[in-house]
Structures are given as structure tokens and as C-alpha cells.
Write a structure and sequence with these properties.
alpha/beta; Dodecin subunit-like; Rossmann fold; Alpha-Beta Plaits; 3 domains; 7-stranded mixed β-sheet; 5-stranded mixed β-sheet; 11 helices; 15 strands; elongated; disordered N terminus
């Protein structure tokens, strides 16, 4: 019997191999998070007027005649739902741009169907008026959440609620929906956990990715009674970075095959809820999400310039002292270089600018630290110089006192303070 000797690795050789294997596994896991068929591209939005879910049940001389009569009946019913004036069948047909077959059963002389009727807006508005072209909302990012069997899904995998919103014809809606496809990094950026965040910095980053001004969160909580049995849907409409409640309702599907129809009706109902909220003034973009570029007060600008000039003089004085020490000479004070001690309090009624570095492991820590620094006694203002979530953020603090006094005030508010040259490093 032939035997093969396997190569043996020492401890020093095995460690790099294990590290490479772990790195490969991590890469595969990360790729798997964004790979796969998750995306459902939304249909192109049309400005035409769409009326869906029109039920017809008619008979005719033959199958084709029954279908023709069914479509004519659907057009009349759809026009009535739009509350249009009384018109002849030919006039109504002249405004119809498409018939959408949602479901149909065709017999030898009978036609049973549920249809969608799409009217050309330009021609229909001559009879309906331009009221439906009223004020539209700002671009709203849509985050459709599915809750079922203890899990919460958005775009992690394809689901019926995502598909219902992707197939919704939103062109005639007053809401300007921004509907991500869910492909690629969408499944990482938009998750159920994101709906619970309150940090405006996090939300602003997400909204900027999709050119949206605010967020709408339609939640579908689906309860399957038993395999193949009824499905109960409890729907909740929420909006904004604070996840505010708008309305809720409940619907029921006889079986899983009827679930897509129920969800399509739920989407239409959500659109009505959002449109009503827009009318009531609730869907205005949250002003805290778009602070813009603030204008600096001229007095504060002069104060910043004075602080920068003082820093420059201090750097020059320090450089002069270092040169003198290297040359073995004693620096003479001739009035050309002067710098006030760092810890000397400013004159009464004025403030000084100090740099405060803050360890900010997450957005909540950043917001809490900024609020506590601004609330500290003697602090006139705290501006954000740089933000580093997961690192060290930098603030510029206007304080009426010395840097030692500022350190003491911040310690009193629970910070651990390390003092440097005209700067502090604080953490919790």
C-alpha cells in the first residue's frame, strides 16, 4: 500500500496561513452581504392618471365580445371613481391610454376580471381640472419594512412588500417617492435598524445618497395563521427621522396566493394616508436634517481671527525659544516677540477660543458630548471643526476663562480631561 507524507508546518508557518484563510472568509462574507438577487427595480413613474382594482363581470355573444364589453365597463367605472362628469363611452375611451389586466377569467360567453385603467392626464384634465396637480411633496425616501415571524426585513432579501411598492404606479401621486431598488449596497445602508436612529448626521448621510429630503416608513406586519391559510396584515405608517406615527389599519388575505393583491391595496391606502398628511402640513422636511451652511456672526468671526493670530504669535515665540536653546543663547525680550501665557484669563467680559478634542465612538456619544460641552458653565459657544464617528472629533469652544478653568468645568460634567497647550482632550 502506498503512503503519502503530508507536509508539516511549524507554528510560525501556520499562523500566516490561518490569517490568510480568515481574511478570505471575511471577504466572502462581506461580498455575500451585497451579492445575490435582492434588487427589484421600481417601474417607471408616469404622470398619467391610474385607477386600479376595477372589478367587472359581464357576458357577451362570444369570448371576444365579452372582453370588449368588460373593458368598456371598466372604463366607465374608473371614470366614475375619478368623479368625472357624465360622458359617452366613446369620449371616455378617447382618454384611455392603457388597460392593465391584473387578473382575468375568460369563458365562452363570460368575462370576469380585475383591471386597471390609465387615463392620459393631458386629455383628462380638460374635464377633471388641474386639482390633482396640486402641490407635491419634497423627495421622500421610502423604507418599506416587513415584519414577519420575528424578523424585520427591508432589502436584505426580496419580499412581497418590497415588490408591491416597486410595482406601484406613483406618477399620479402627490408624494414624490424615492424608491431604492435594494440592489448592491442598499441592503447595507437602509435597514430596519436605521429607522430607530435619531442622529441627524446619520440620516443626512443616508438621505444624501438618494437625493431625498426626508423619509417615509410603511410597515407591514404579516401574520400567517398556518401554511396555506389566511394572512393578516397590520399596517403602520410612520415618517421622519424620529419615526413618528401617522396612522394604522388592518387587512386580511384569504391565503398566500391572495397576499400580493392585499399588499397592492395596502400600498394605495398608504399613499392616501401620506397625501392626507401632506395636506395637513405634516410631511414638511425636518429642518434639522438640512442645516445648510450657516453664516458666521461678524463678531464671532473677529474673535476667531484674533484667536488664530494669538496662536500664530505663540508658535513664533515657541520657535524662537527652541532656536535659542539650540544655539545656547538666552532669548532676549526686546518687544518684537511676545505671547501671553496660555493659562492667563482673558480680560473681563471677553472670551477666549480653545480647541477641545472629543472621543466619539458613535453618533450618540458625539451628540451627548456636544450637548454637555455647550451646557457647561461659562461656555459661550461650541462649534464643530471636524466630526469623526468612531474616532476623535474636534470642537472650537468659546469660554470666558482660562483653559484650566474650562478643564475644571468639564470635569464637573463627568468628563475625563487631559490638558495640552491651549487644547483639551476629553472622554467618558
Amino acid at each position: 500500500m502506498m503512503r503519502f507524507a503530508l507536509p508539516s508546518f511549524g507554528r510560525s508557518q501556520a499562523l500566516p496561513i490561518v490569517a490568510l484563510a480568515l481574511l478570505a472568509l471575511c471577504a466572502v462574507a462581506l461580498f455575500a452581504q451585497v451579492d445575490g438577487e435582492r434588487g427589484i427595480a421600481p417601474i417607471a413613474a408616469s404622470s398619467d392618471i391610474s385607477v386600479t382594482g376595477v372589478e367587472v363581470d359581464v357576458t357577451g355573444d362570444d369570448a371576444q365580445d365579452a372582453r370588449t364589453k368588460g373593458w368598456e365597463a371598466a372604463q366607465r367605472k374608473a371614470w366614475e371613481r375619478l368623479k368625472g362628469p357624465e360622458l359617452s363611452d366613446s369620449q371616455i375611451a378617447g382618454m384611455v391610454s392603457a388597460i392593465v389586466i391584473e387578473r382575468e377569467q375568460l369563458g365562452p360567453r363570460r368575462y370576469i376580471a380585475r383591471l386597471g385603467v390609465i387615463f392620459d392626464r393631458q386629455r383628462a384634465n380638460a374635464y377633471l381640472g388641474g386639482e390633482e396637480r396640486a402641490r407635491r411633496s419634497a423627495p421622500m425616501l421610502l423604507v418599506p419594512v416587513t415584519v414577519s415571524a420575528g424578523t424585520q426585513l427591508v432589502y436584505e432579501m426580496r419580499n412581497p412588500w418590497q415588490r408591491a411598492w416597486a410595482e406601484y404606479q406613483a406618477g399620479s401621486s402627490r408624494i414624490d417617492y424615492v424608491r431604492p431598488s435594494g440592489a448592491g449596497s442598499d441592503s447595507l445602508l437602509i435597514t430596519y435598524g436605521q429607522t430607530g436612529r435619531r442622529s441627524r448626521l446619520w440620516w443626512r448621510n443616508v438621505l444624501d445618497q438618494f437625493s431625498a429630503s426626508d423619509v417615509l416608513i410603511p410597515i407591514a406586519n404579516l401574520d400567517y395563521s398556518y401554511p396555506g391559510g389566511p394572512v393578516t396584515g397590520r399596517f403602520t405608517a410612520r415618517y421622519g427621522p424620529d419615526n413618528r406615527f401617522l396612522a394604522s389599519f388592518e387587512m386580511k388575505a384569504a391565503n398566500p396566493q391572495a397576499l400580493p393583491d392585499m399588499l397592492a391595496q395596502a400600498v394605495t391606502r398608504f399613499d392616501t394616508i401620506f397625501a392626507q398628511a401632506l395636506t395637513e402640513g405634516l410631511l414638511k422636511p425636518d429642518p434639522t436634517l438640512n442645516l445648510g451652511t450657516p453664516e458666521i456672526n461678524p463678531a464671532l468671526l473677529r474673535l476667531i481671527e484674533a484667536g488664530q493670530a494669538a496662536d500664530a504669535r505663540e508658535r513664533e515665540a515657541r520657535a524662537a525659544r527652541e532656536r535659542a536653546a539650540r544655539d545656547g543663547e538666552t532669548a532676549e525680550t526686546d518687544g518684537t516677540i511676545s505671547a501671553a501665557p496660555v493659562n492667563t484669563p482673558p480680560p473681563e467680559g471677553s472670551v477666549a477660543l480653545y480647541t477641545v478634542q472629543v472621543q466619539t465612538p458613535d453618533a450618540a456619544a458625539f451628540n451627548a458630548a456636544l450637548a454637555d460641552v455647550r451646557a457647561a458653565s461659562g461656555v459661550r459657544n461650541a462649534g464643530i471643526r471636524s466630526t469623526a464617528i468612531g474616532g476623535t472629533s474636534v470642537l472650537t469652544v468659546s469660554y470666558s476663562g482660562s483653559i484650566q478653568d474650562l478643564a475644571g468645568v468639564l470635569r464637573a460634567r463627568g468628563f475625563t480631561v487631559q490638558q495640552g497647550n491651549n487644547a483639551l482632550l476629553i472622554s467618558r
